[in-house]
Design brief:
four-stranded antiparallel beta sheet; three-stranded antiparallel beta sheet; alpha+beta; 226 residues; Immunoglobulin-like; 2 domains; 4 helices
């Protein structure tokens, strides 16, 4: 939605230049931050650093869908600024807004969910936390060359609650030796909403695997009352 609002595709390098310019001019800085944090592996906190990085590496930048829908630097050194996946924390959130996981992730049930609604002024946001048992993963995106089952999500709103925009999903990371993208550990989903009362149902369909075996595909549902 942020990319659409400024009229530049997320796989067009100009989107980074535009976001940096917005920040430099003090125009819609929060949107500029979301774009830069969403589509890169950098977390600079001022426009000057972003501009220096962009000017230095713009000729080497490339967009990768299989690598997480990110702009990376065409450089084999993972320490090159912009290539370090260890800094990836795509959805920044306030831990105090997230409900603790009520159920426990186990080897038999590797995926657990919890939810909370964050309200800032007139804006409301549904935040869903997913906990995946250590050693297990699910598939955010499956390559055509792999036989795995891709995770899907379904959100339904009832009453006077309305979903605004699209569900914001975690990026995940590339699976070793594959173009598929996996989710592991703790992940955050965000959905903007409107309305004062009603019910939201979130359904995730997934197959959990570890390095040796894949469990049966399952569905898990969490219901949020407003």
């Amino acid at each position: 939605e942020d990319a659409k609002s400024i009229g530049i595709a997320n796989n067009d390098k100009r989107i980074l230049d535009k976001a940096i310019s917005m920040w430099e001019k003090g125009k819609d800085i929060e949107k500029a931050k979301r774009i830069l944090y969403r589509y890169t592996l950098l977390r600079y906190d001022n426009a000057k650093q972003w501009r220096e990085w962009y000017n230095k590496y713009q000729s080497k930048l490339f967009f990768t869908e299989s690598g997480g829908w990110l702009w990376l630097v065409n450089d084999l050194d993972p320490k090159t600024p912009g290539n370090d996946y260890s800094v990836l924390k795509f959805y920044e959130f306030n831990e105090s807004n997230i409900a603790p996981i009520q159920e426990k992730a186990t080897k038999e049930e590797p995926v657990a969910l919890s939810s909370a609604v964050s309200t800032v002024g007139k804006d409301k946001e549904l935040i869903i936390r997913m906990k995946i048992y250590p050693g297990y993963h699910i598939y955010a995106k499956v390559s055509d060359q792999d036989p795995y089952i891709q995770t899907t999500y379904d959100l339904k709103a009832e009453g006077d609650v309305k979903l605004v925009g699209e569900l914001q999903k975690p990026v995940g990371r590339p699976m070793a030796g594959s173009k598929s993208i996996i989710l592991e550990g703790e992940q955050i989903f965000r959905q903007k909403i409107e309305g004062k009362s009603g019910k939201i149902t979130f359904i995730v369909n997934y197959q959990a695997c570890d390095s040796h075996v894949c469990l049966m595909p399952k569905s898990k549902t969490i219901t949020i009352e407003l």
